[in-house]
Write a structure and sequence with these properties.
The chain is mainly beta. It contains 21 helices and 86 strands.
């Protein structure tokens, strides 16, 4: 959607014609909730909504609309009002301060038992002038009582109410130098320069101008001068972006003892992550740290939600959760634009900290990507189970995004035309407006009939394993409100966390946490007393250990959006056992430890200088002693893959993903017989493929080969000795989606013959005018030479038509197409092949074949004496239909047979097919216009709906515009209501019911057991895999690579992967290694990955090519093990381990995704003997 259009809608949405009248709950239309990611236990209520008569809080937050604001300040007239909590009068009870627009703010004093009393107006806190937004309670003057900062919107001066210590307050913002006159949103207090006093960051929103033009502004960083004055140093500190700031949260994201900043911005300006340089300046690391941010970012929070002692980040956007809301709110989910940096997505972003200052957005996998028009959000352990849960509040009074309203125009001129034309007339009739009257006089009535947007606020239970479960109603959020701000605190001192919520055009609400009413929960509340002017110890990090899991909380007051919380750390625990240890890392670097701490109480810890001061380090002392297995190779391979310009969606608008950006492929072999492994990198159309020769130093230099052509879209490649002359020849598969029937020669694969010195000439192949993908070599007939399987990928411009694949028999160096004779199902029952592997899965000394692709099960072909017989139906995995990208093999459980790693798209995608709720795809000419239409569906509340938006359907099948002139007509229907059974039954149908990447355990006799790889391996599509004993412990490990920047335009891209090392335990289990311990961080749209010996066989190199990027290389630390090389004729090895087990190790000519690793193995100290085998 055009963002200016959104601006216009926001402006018109809040005109004074809107009624402030509260809707009756009985008429509220609630959001339908899709099923959770995984089954969870039945939840009991956690929160109980209290009435104002019970709490004494009578605070109505009316948003008056833009007519009440000054010029340049109407952008944010759709919502307002903040909240701050803290113990103002030092009586041990947390008080509440609420702000609003155009009416007095109020302080409510906690009288105990969740009963509050409005403070007297004589205190000096009412501040009825202008529009108040965020508020923060903080002891800014270091006198041990709380002051209150109020951010003012609408070009009024910010307030800094200093607590006089006698129950009254004095505004000293002007004399302190922080009385900013702008569109202020929130103030964040933090000690960015570690000098002992609190500095201030003020988030500023942009300015609107006539003609709906808008300008971002730079927010302000005020350095505390130490004597109650502040100076704006944002420019010299390196914070220079101009945007529409909405929130800012401080947190030490790299554990170096210095506070960093995450600033959420609305509209075109992306969010910004600023890393503290420890010298008074910040570096904007957003591009390096995050592959995208949210488009319309509002609130954000920083907390360690997965208990790994690293702070994660969550920012919220405005994506609706269900089919009806998405299609009535947005014309498209796409945020791509050629006009500005579009590395932004219309969705919430949950950034998992990877510990190396990079982050992965896991919101789709976590189940937290869509929470409607969201404002404030925070992590906290609401159910006291030791895991931080998540809360998001959302809402607007009026549904200004409703497409049925906006599609008819929103200027006064177009409103006059609402009665002209059939569609407009029907729309007006639907609003019950008297069309006999001039519509200009019914302006108010039209706006009054815009639908209300009452959707529940969101609560998510942290289920561990990077998943959150939506429990809003189950935990007590049964009444929907339009909410903008909230804060949590233990208002009744019973150990659990209560809530105060500031609602739009409604009374503020209090939720009592009843989790611990029976005293069965376990908790610890920690408060700090620090030195200097930072009396509450803001920025200190508190860690607690009960059993084996550390919990970490960093004290910050400003959180979420226009909200601030109590300066207490609230911990929950699964048992009542005392804590083994409690650690506090104070802002000055002092580490304080307490042992054997009883829980179920409030604990105050006073700063002590006695402990040894820990030096500020980027990682903890323990982590710093671990040398990573790999390091980024500073010697780059001088090649950047650059895709040719081609838009798959121009020809086929509703393709599920691009088919023209599959490469590059990569293959490794010693092509010039110097004992070093070289590499070939395939190229896109109109680009030159590259052959690089490895040098003894580990460098690579290019060997130019004039015979390599550039007219093809190259895919996979494989080196093999075709003619048994002891040198490595080269086969290259050609495919892609660009070529069509008038250019068949572009599809023909290529064969290059090696002269023994690394010089290649063109060989001959059978005619193969098919878009192929992978090529893998194996000795099908056990005659001592290498035969080929070549996978057919797609038919260009004719998705989902499926091409044939090929089995090529090597007859004395000449390849013969024998597919019809020995594997006819590749012709009669083809599939869209992505990867294949020649492997002896039944240990009969005949290489079998496994083929994987999209919309297909993994297909198994048993080699019966040179004949390939498909046995998929009896393998035990025949019902798993995936978007399989790759397959690779290794004996991971050390039992003498080969197990497999199968790459899929992972769980971090928009829609996840399952056995009960599959993703289904239909291809047919539904509108009878001569072109094939592509429809993909998902399930929501036991009904099927289309994955793509109605606007995408309009563009593909214009006839739907006549059938569904109004969005509301379309969204009431399921997919099966929209399209007839006859048209669906006659369609080409495909199914996806498995999205996880898998480990296939070989059970013997052609049977397999699938197991999902660990959650960290499900963050992105897995393409590449390299298998070897990388950590030299005698067990096989695997390094995976992935991402995909070519899904449909509404998904835009899947980019959460940075590569991952999975350490094998020798029993078929895997332990993910973070980037600090593995040293692996693969950026970009990665494809395959290969492993090869380097540095004269003393180290292992990993090489990962990237679509649209460079080849990234990683070098292992020097090995303490021997590298055993396999000759081209040797097919596998038997590895005898000192523990008595035997591991089978196969050597592949092509494996993973469009990849060929070098054939070697690591003989570690745990290996007794290695026996190389040459096959049958």
């Amino acid at each position: 959607m055009n963002k200016v259009t959104i601006f216009i809608m926001l402006l018109l949405s809040c005109m004074n014609i809107f009624s402030a009248e509260q809707p009756k709950h009985s008429h509220v239309q609630r959001s339908m909730q899709p099923r959770p990611l995984e089954p969870i236990s039945v939840e009991v209520p956690i929160f109980q909504l209290l009435e104002k008569e019970q709490t004494g809080i009578n605070f109505l937050n009316l948003v008056p609309g833009p007519q009440s604001f000054k010029t340049g300040s109407t952008l944010f007239s759709i919502a307002g009002g903040g909240v701050a909590v803290g113990d103002i009068n030092k009586d041990g009870l947390v008080d509440i301060y609420l702000t609003r627009f155009m009416a007095p703010n109020k302080l409510f004093i906690n009288k105990g038992g969740l009963r509050f009393e409005e403070a007297a107006s004589s205190l000096g806190l009412n501040d009825s002038v202008g529009a108040s937004f965020g508020a923060t309670m903080v002891d800014i003057d270091g006198d041990n009582d709380l002051d209150i900062f109020v951010a003012k919107y609408g070009f009024d001066a910010n307030r800094m109410f200093i607590n006089n210590g006698d129950g009254t307050f004095t505004d000293k913002a002007e004399e302190m130098g922080i009385a900013t006159v702008a569109n202020s949103i929130q103030g964040t207090f933090f000690d960015y320069d570690n000098d002992g006093d609190l500095d201030l960051f003020v988030v500023l929103n942009g300015v609107d101008r006539p003609g709906f033009l808008h300008k971002g502004v730079r927010s302000q960083l005020f350095r505390n001068n130490g004597y109650m004055t502040f100076t704006d140093v944002a420019e010299q500190a390196g914070i220079r972006h101009e945007g529409f700031g909405l929130s800012c949260t401080a947190g030490d994201i790299n554990n170096d003892g210095w506070l960093d900043l995450y600033i959420a911005n609305d509209f075109e300006e992306p969010d910004h992550l600023y890393l503290n340089n420890k010298d008074g300046t910040f570096s904007d690391i957003t591009k390096k740290a995050m592959k995208h941010t949210a488009l319309f970012s509002m609130g954000n929070d920083i907390a360690d939600f997965n208990n790994d002692n690293y702070l994660d980040i969550y920012s919220v956007d405005m994506l609706p959760e269900n089919h009806a809301r998405r299609n009535t709110q947005f014309e498209t989910m796409s945020s791509f634009s050629m006009a500005f940096d579009s590395s932004q997505m219309i969705k919430n972003c949950m950034f998992l900290n990877r510990k190396d200052t990079t982050f992965s957005d896991i919101a789709y996998m976590a189940g937290t990507a869509a929470t409607e028009w969201s404002w404030a959000t925070m992590f906290a352990d609401f159910d006291l189970d030791g895991w931080k849960d998540l809360m998001v509040v959302n809402g607007l009074t009026w549904d200004v995004m409703d497409r049925d309203f906006t599609k008819f125009g929103i200027t006064s001129e177009t409103l006059l035309k609402l009665g002209i034309g059939k569609e407009a007339l029907e729309f007006v009739k639907g609003l019950n407006i008297n069309t006999d009257r001039n519509l200009e006089t019914d302006y108010t009535q039209i706006f009054r009939n815009i639908p209300r947007t009452h959707v529940n606020n969101y609560l998510y239970k942290n289920g561990g394993n990077l998943q959150f479960h939506q429990v809003s109603e189950a935990w007590g959020f049964t009444e929907p409100y339009n909410s903008v701000a909230f804060a949590y605190a233990d208002f009744d001192n019973d150990g659990d966390i209560d809530l105060v919520v500031n609602n739009i055009d409604s009374l503020a609400t209090i939720y009592k946490n009843i989790a611990n009413d029976k005293g069965t929960k376990n908790y610890l509340t920690v408060q700090l007393e620090y030195k200097d002017k930072n009396t509450e110890g803001l920025g200190a990090r508190i860690k607690v250990l009960q059993d084996t899991v550390w919990q970490t909380i960093e004290l910050q007051r400003t959180r979420g959006f226009v909200s601030s919380v109590d300066a207490s750390a609230y911990f929950g625990f699964p048992s009542s056992k005392p804590l083994k240890e409690l650690q506090i890392l104070w802002p000055d670097g002092t580490k304080q430890e307490l042992k054997n701490i009883a829980i179920n109480k409030k604990l105050k810890v006073i700063y002590s200088k006695t402990p040894v001061k820990q030096q500020n380090k980027k990682v903890s002392a323990k982590e710093n002693t671990i040398q990573p297995l790999f390091s980024k190779n500073l010697v780059t391979i001088p090649y950047k893959h650059q895709e040719n310009v081609f838009d798959d969606f121009f020809r086929e608008r509703l393709l599920p993903k691009r088919l023209s950006m599959n490469g590059p492929g990569i293959a490794s072999a010693d092509v010039n017989n110097d004992g070093l492994f070289d590499m070939y990198i395939s190229s896109p159309e109109n680009s030159r493929p590259r052959l690089f020769l490895q040098q003894a130093s580990g460098h690579f230099i290019e060997s130019r080969q004039s015979v390599f052509d550039t007219i093809c879209e190259q895919q996979g490649a494989v080196f093999l000795d075709i003619d048994n002359d002891m040198d490595m020849d080269l086969y290259v598969a050609n495919g892609g989606n660009e070529s069509i029937t008038d250019e068949p020669e572009r599809m023909q694969d290529r064969l290059y013959i090696n002269d023994g010195k690394g010089n290649f000439s063109l060989g001959s192949l059978p005619l193969m005018l098919t878009s192929t993908s992978c090529v893998v070599a194996g000795d099908i007939d056990n005659d001592g030479d290498m035969d080929l399987f070549v996978g057919g990928r797609n038919i260009a411009g004719n998705y989902p038509a499926t091409p044939r694949s090929y089995v090529l028999l090597n007859n004395n160096g000449v390849f013969i197409d024998v597919t019809e004779n020995i594997a006819s199902s590749f012709i009669t029952n083809p599939s869209m092949v992505q990867s294949a592997l020649w492997t002896d899965f039944d240990n009969d000394d005949w290489v079998d074949l496994i083929v994987v692709g999209e919309w297909s099960p993994m297909r198994f072909f048993k080699n019966n004496g040179g004949q390939l017989t498909e046995i998929t139906e009896t393998t035990g995995v025949n019902t798993l239909y995936g978007w399989w990208n790759s397959i690779n093999g290794g004996d991971f459980d050390n039992d003498g047979d080969i197990d497999y790693i199968v790459g899929n798209f992972g769980a971090n995608i928009r829609y996840k097919g399952s056995e009960k709720y599959p993703i289904e795809f239909y291809a047919n000419d539904f509108d009878k216009n001569g072109s094939i239409d592509h429809l993909m569906t998902y399930w929501e509340n036991d009904k099927r709906y289309a994955v793509r938006s109605l606007m995408a359907f309009y563009n593909q099948m214009p006839i739907l515009r006549k059938r569904f002139p109004l969005y509301r007509d379309y969204v009431q229907l399921s997919f099966d209501d929209v399209f007839s059974k006859g048209s669906l039954d006659s369609s080409h149908k495909m199914t996806l019911n498995a999205v996880h990447s898998l480990y296939l355990e070989n059970l013997g006799n052609g049977k397999f057991r699938p197991k999902s790889l660990p959650p960290l391996a499900q963050l992105s599509p897995i393409f590449g895999s390299a298998i070897q004993d990388f950590d030299e412990d005698g067990n096989l490990d695997v390094v995976i690579s992935g991402n995909f920047y070519g899904p449909d335009v509404e998904a835009w891209r899947y980019d959460a992967g940075y590569g991952l090392l999975l350490r094998g335990d020798g029993k078929g289990g895997f332990i993910p290694q973070d980037a600090l311990s593995s040293g692996i961080c693969i950026h970009g749209d990665s494809r395959g990955i290969i492993a090869l010996p380097s540095y004269n066989n003393t180290r292992i190199a990993l090489c990962a090519p990237t679509n649209g990027g460079y080849v990234q290389t990683f070098i292992s630390k020097p090995l303490n093990s021997e590298i055993v090389m396999a000759a081209p004729t040797q097919r596998y090895a038997v590895v005898e381990l000192k523990n008595g087990k035997n591991r089978k190790h196969e050597f592949y000519c092509g494996s993973g995704y469009l990849s060929q690793s070098a054939n070697f193995l690591v003989k570690s100290k745990q290996v007794k003997k290695v026996t190389l085998k040459s096959g049958r």
